[in-house]
Amino acid sequence: MNLAELKHTIAHKKNFLCVGLDTDLEKIPSFLNEYDDPAFEFNRRIIDATRDFCVSYKINTAFYEDKGTDGWETLLRTEAYIGNAHFKIADAKRGDIGNTSDRYAKAFFEEAGFDAVTVAPYMGHDSISPFLKYENKYAIMLALTSNPGADDFQLQKLENGQYLFEKVVATSQHWEGSERLMYVTGATRPEYLQKIRALAPETFLLVPGVGAQGGSLSEVVKHGKTNAIGLLINASRSIIYASNGEDFAEKAGEEAKRLAEEMTFYF
Amino acid sequence: MNLAELKHTIAHKKNFLCVGLDTDLEKIPSFLNEYDDPAFEFNRRIIDATRDFCVSYKINTAFYEDKGTDGWETLLRTEAYIGNAHFKIADAKRGDIGNTSDRYAKAFFEEAGFDAVTVAPYMGHDSISPFLKYENKYAIMLALTSNPGADDFQLQKLENGQYLFEKVVATSQHWEGSERLMYVTGATRPEYLQKIRALAPETFLLVPGVGAQGGSLSEVVKHGKTNAIGLLINASRSIIYASNGEDFAEKAGEEAKRLAEEMTFYF
Checking CA distances to B149, which of A17, A35, A145, B31 falls within 20 to 30 Å? Predict the structure, then answer.
């Protein structure tokens, strides 16, 4: 799914929800352990229960990579099961020297069929450019994250008065292929969304932190919405772990539907 | 291998070389393709040819991850083949929210038996702390990298006059478990090594950029050496791709030996 299709899907569904598949074998219902691939079985049922109520899925690759080869297999099966009607994000937070980023871009865009990969900015332009070379593929760069450690560096002020996260956005907007760049901006700091919008008025923002981390949807919309919405609100734990029983998928569907209904007000 | 053992090995071998296994199937000699696992066969021969001339190996995980499940298997086989007489670094540049970094720490320190993992600082303390909780395991944080994009953010000056990379070092030195922290500092910018040494006088530095990227060993030693050496000089392409023929391992051994002999002068 490319950006035009994502915008169309958002407008058509009146929805900008991204469901995060942070699938933790220690947290999924224990009855799933009788399956060959419990994590895939969990994801399959979550996807079936939520696909009508979201426009995107985000797969947190760490939860698969720590299972070694089996985990990568589960990740690929999940990505394939989602299909092509949703915007598929590999939440991998990669960023390395150019020849290494080339490998990651190939892994996520070619070996797997993701539409976007999250990337970390610290190493600068040549660590990101390999992700921006693929037509209809997107790099979602960390700008201001929702965790406590965001204060350590992202909210440091530079000599010119900008916060580091503003510099990251301002600088990267001039990179070749920046029309295929999006930013991660945590919902727990909605007041800073305006600063990002001042620098990137139309760029899509992936917004974690609504739900389990306490961010407010209405505040995010107030400060971050564009004419084409321009937001993907990610919720992971509040949806996929809504219940720990036999009804986990049903409850996940209900929570996604609840968020989806709240979103219709903003169209 | 823990830090005390690393220091002992360095002193005993009079060597502080780290060989980087950035093993690219498109660059290894084509006759290896007859093996079931060409990348492992390449690594096995490189390791046999170089183990006497280095104290550490660094495995660039991207070159394995882009092969999916097979790649992760090759990575694990390589890590096991190195054994316990070398300091084993997973060059993965991870950094994510706490529960995700937990997964990565588990993958690299428990599933695989690496001694250290490279991490990215942008998300701050709670993205790194999961890596600092393991006794005798180490997190090697990006400070000042050797690529052109380092200028974009790492060399930005903050309000207090520090460069961002100095702030990264200064702040992280106060984190719990910081005695298990090391830093990546590129050899292509040796003049900044003094600034890092001013903030972290004894901390080990992993120094890429000698060799293919043009950094000078003598300059790095001049600005960065401590009483216990405190440096791991990484060379990847200049060693492992010293020849593309049947003699690739022999030539790799010769290049490692050449660097090793140069290093003995600094003891």
Answer: A145
